[in-house]
Amino acid sequence: MIYLDxxxxxxxxxxxxxxxxxxxxxxxxxxxxGGYESAMLAADTLLDCRLALADLFCMRDPARVVFxxxxxxxxxxxxxxxxxxxxxxxxxxxxxxxxxxxxxxxGADIRVAxxxxxxxxxxxxxxxxxxxxxxxxxxxxVSNVFGYILPVERIxxxxxxxxxxxxxxxxxxxxxxGLDFESLGCAFAAMPGHKGLLGPQGTGVLLCRDEDVTPLFxxxxxxxxxxxxxxxxxxxxxxxxxxxxxxxxxxxxxxxxLQQRTCHAVLAHERxxxxxxxxxxxxxxxxxxxxxxxxxxxxxxxxxxxxxMDCEDVAARLAERGxxxxxxxxxxxxxxxxxxxxxxxxxxxxxxxFNTSREALTAAEALLALA
Amino acid sequence: MQYLxxxxxxxxxxxxxxxxxxxxxxxxxxxxxxxxxxxxxAYCVIVAARNRDWALHLxxxxxxxxxxxxxxxxxxxxEVSE
Lengths: 371, 82
Fold this sequence. Notes:
The complex is a heterodimer.
Chain A: E1 2-3, H1 15-27, H2 37-56, E2 65-68, H3 71-82, E3 88-92, H4 97-106, E4 109-113, H5 120-130, E5 136-140, H6 152-162, E6 166-169, H7 181-184, E7 188-192, E8 204-208, H8 245-261, H9 263-281, E9 287-290, E10 301-306, H10 311-320, E11 323-324, E12 326-328, H11 333-339, E13 346-350, H12 357-370
Parallel strand pairs in A: 1-11, 3-4, 3-5, 5-6, 6-7
Antiparallel strand pairs in A: 2-8, 7-8, 9-10, 10-13, 12-13
Helix pairs in contact in A: 1-8, 2-8, 3-4, 9-12
Chain B: E1 2-7, H1 10-22, E2 28-31, E3 43-48, H2 52-61, E4 68-72, E5 78-80
Antiparallel strand pairs in B: 1-3, 1-4, 2-3, 4-5
């Protein structure tokens, strides 16, 4: 199989991730529940993972690195910490349902900062117009549909000027496009562990600027257990219940692999695969590529549409040829609406550090055969 | 004699232990004895009595000031010293 759906899950992982998960299941119990060896080994693994993530995202305090079950989980915490019913919230026109639906569910007054694909100046302008009076803003770092790298640093600067707390959805950027949490000054950044960070499914991370957060779940934390209320400090406040220790051990292995390889090198590799793929398809009749004119505005994700063919049919026929891609709306109808592809959907190709140029070329050839 | 330096969470106790370890001071993460855990389960770092002042200096410098310092006598009795 040629796996080109890493924007959904990085199915291709370093061998060290599988080993770490297996070893954790063999040697670790639950942290914060006892002082015996297997509990302390689990606790050490969690702290090592917090420290590694704090290092990767330039955070001073590893206690504000919170483990979640997914980016969606983290985004729900972040949104409920900042937004109430009727509050005005500005979001980019490229947000995932993990942002749109929680806001809708809360009854927030959602204002969408729309701007054309790969036009960062227009995006900044749209945010500038809508931010006054907003209670919060949410911006994805990289569009999960188009690989568009949004100007999140400039949007964060605008939010700081206006005193509007910003939530960054780093689901598609974590592990490839750098994110300096302290410099950005955002309130939260949420990300999954199972995509660019190369950890197992069921892991996620929420970076928090301060401890004034609203828990989504309440329960035992192994701390202050005589109190009826949740501890006021992080990470305990947001981490009740038993941790996914094998998952976090795997996530730690994935992050260590990234630290050795560097996110910069991963992004360069994925962009090179994207270039190979797009150049082979460039100029082909009936093939429409959603590609940035300026490569620095796009990460290793690209959407494609074939004239006269349903995107789901294209993905199904590629699957028959052993090529795994994702078609449809990618849980991001806002992004498709903004780009004008809501009716047709697209076929998404997303590359990983473990894909090769040959695979990118093979996928392009397979697509050409369908066009 | 030993001192038990208590922290608000396991994460902080672990970080404190690592700060001490880097400075060559042995600090073992342990659960706080029930008799001294005023708000329920808690964690501490155990240091030898002779290392108390140096450990506190290191931890304060790292922004990890303990919540309480408890003296544990050889017979196991506890004495909250701060």
